Amino acid sequence: MQALSRIVAFALVGLLLMLPVLSADDKDKKTDPPKDEGKKADVKKDDAAKKDAKKDEPAKKDADKKDSTPKAAGAKLPPRKGKFKDLETDKEAAEKKALRKSTFTAEVVAVVEDKKTLRLKLTIPYVRINEGQLQNYLKAQTPQQALQAQAQMYELATTQKQVELTAADDFKVRMGHPPPKFDDKGRARRYTQKELQELRGNDRLPGFPAEFSDIKSGQIVQVTLLQSKSGSRPVKRPKEAEAEAADDNLPKMSRIIIVADPKN
Question: How far from 60 is each of 68, 71, 72, 208, 244, CA to CA, in Å?
Answer without folding.
Answer: 12, 19, 22, 71, 49
